[in-house]
User: Fold this.
Amino acid sequence: MENTFEPVIVGFLCNWCSYRAADLAGTARIHYAPNLRPIRVMCSGRVEPQHVLAALRAGADGVMIAGCHPGECHYVEGNLKTMRRFYLLRRLLAQWGIEEERVQLVWASASEGNILAAAVDRMTEQVRALGPLRWQQQVLGADGQPSPAPLSREESAHAVAERAEMLP
Amino acid sequence: MTERVGVYVCHCGSNIAGTVDVADVARWAGEQANVAIARDYKFMCSSLGQELIAADIREKGLTRVVVAACSPHMHEKTFRNTCAQAGLNPYLFEMANIREHDSWATKDREAATLKAKALVKGAIERVVHHQPLEPLPVFINPNTLVVGGGIAGITAALELANAGHHVYLVEREPSIGGRMAQLDKTFPTLDCAACILTPRMVEVGQHEHITLFTYSEVEQVSGYVGNFTVTVRKRARHVDESLCTGCGICEEKCPKRVIDEGFGAGLGYRKAIYRPFPQAVPKYPVIDVANCTFFQRGKCKACQIVCPTGAINYDQQDEVLQIQVGNIILATGHVLFDPRRIPQYGYGRLANVFTSLEFERMVNAAGPTEGKIVLRDGVTPPRSVAIVHCVGSRDQNYHEYCSKVCCMYSLKFAHLIHERVPDAEVYNFYIDMRTPGKGYEEFYHRLLREGTHFVRGRVAEVTDAARLPGEEGKLIVQVEDTLIGKQRRIPVDMVILSPAMEAHADSREIAQRFGLGCDFNGFFTERHPKLDPVATMTEGLFIAGTCQGPKDIPESVTQGAAAAARVAGLIKQGTVMMEPVRAHIEEALCSGCRICNTLCPYNAIVFHADRGVSEVVTALCQGCGTCVAACPSQAITGAHFTNQQIMAEIEGVLWDVRPAELVEA
Assistant:
């Protein structure tokens, strides 16, 4: 059966690099998946884990955080702070059984429209393959109540692996 | 509280309307909560489009405006002004980017329209939470700091000083002049570099509006546009500048000779007390402490004995000065790629392989050979010379970029060899001949007529291992001649390598000190590669010359002058308005955990130990929001990017996919 699921991805784009990269991709008429819904932030360092969680909770199937390459941050090192938070957040998400591909960190400078477009295309396909994120069922449990105890590392890894096997 | 939002959807001719159903988006927007009116129009940025918004603000009492059109980087300013002129605070406006991010990025009309609605909804939800803000006025100190005394820095300093503004020029070396001072001739006119440069150097030295700090370095920079405080370390020359007349007797009598690795490119000698070159500005010599017999062994003092004015002062200490400036121009230049990194070219191993800078010094009449082109033995003129282009540039293993000037100076070398050693054969090994510029291609044609041999192909190896008759005692250049498709071995007496221009080894450190960005190669990043080439992302900080990327002298001069013009514009304004996107700490909520203190890259957060709270110094804050994101008490607000606004925008862009239980809530 053909997969007709269109994922919705929220993109937090840094005003100085990846937002401009997306501008450039448009100006250069690089066509990419229309599934990204960009939100401009001054620096990827402004993105809080709770913004990502809020987006996933509010119906997004994936979240992309895009900033300047390490060492090229407009604010010297905001992107390094993002990176730190990102890996912590990813461990948290893994415990909830949320696949790694759903939340991605991308580096794209203002001149790298093609890189950003390619990242959006790649991520859209990855999330499409995973299917819709059902936050309510997956994270809160079918009854809408938080699961009593967080999964251990092995358990969550197991849960992710199990889900991966269920995929077509 | 209900806001009255006006939503304006732009067709942008067919740029947006061709892909997005703009009428549908506008009609749909009109049905959304808080929206008082929604319209679509051919060109919102036209004066008629703007008047439409202004009229609605006045007549329909709009309290918020959303324009769905191009990128905010294009027209945010335009529409903010429109709002301001109609009496609405410009920060109560939000732009939805449905052109660059939507209509231009896909052909799927249905998907594009859906995405446009999501972006518009995000903007509507966000703008409702906007706060009126006032831009921050900043006074501009009319003094300027120029870092780097090469041709770009000299030009910038002179332009500003001639306009009556005071300039502090800081140079690391004992003299200004930079790389250009080391050159013999300049292409394509074959002007003598020193003849055109030294008058400008003298002008800098004598200018009443220029304070020159040579043999000095900037140690620390703090502050922001209009109000930078700069710490300069003036290293001890051990020569009293108020007494020295620059007569040069000390240099003449100094018994210690050392290889001149700086100005002389390692080809000649200088003394332990020295001026880099005779026309140095300032004229005062410097004692090279590491090589001075007195400093190393405690006796000699020859310079002190012969100095007629008693200017030698062995006890002189470094001076650390603080200066206040409004703007900074960085013109820190470049270094040359070290060809030792390509061992197969033999530099440093094979005596008669030279670098371009060594050749510049050799061919200069004031150089160690008095302008005679000779082999490393110092007497034998070469009968054949190979000039190798693209050493370290256009090479995936070293630098991918084209170093831009090497083709032209390699042609210049060929010409100078023809001129000085008329019967020598000259081979230029090039990948592509790149000669864009006024009179450059003509110069190439001139060299073709002068009988230079041009071989197209990257040199594989320079070796002294003779294999064929006629190769003994020669350097053999192994190359694939791509025009005839054959491997060739060309025996020559001398090889000149044309290495790439590269960024200073410490350019990242410099960038960090001044607060600007570097690209992968270590060159400083400009604000916009096409439209803003000398400004940087940091207000009040400009760049000029080869610190931004490889370029020739005319381009460096142009950038120096351009940076000066930008600074002069700011000085003329007196005050500038800065975006009020700044962080603020709510004292009552602050727990004094100090997490934000170390996160701030600008040290803009101070901790008040007495009250146990942190505070953002608004003037230093650049508005990145990293501290806002990190505050565990949510005590920090980032103006114009508050949590409320971002959360509202998240919910907005997901309007069509929000789970039912959230919609009800």
Notes: The helical segments of chain A are 18-27, 49-57, 78-95, 113-130, 135-138, 153-166. Residues 9-166 of chain A form a domain with the Rossmann fold fold (CATH 3.40.50). Chain A has six helices and four strands.
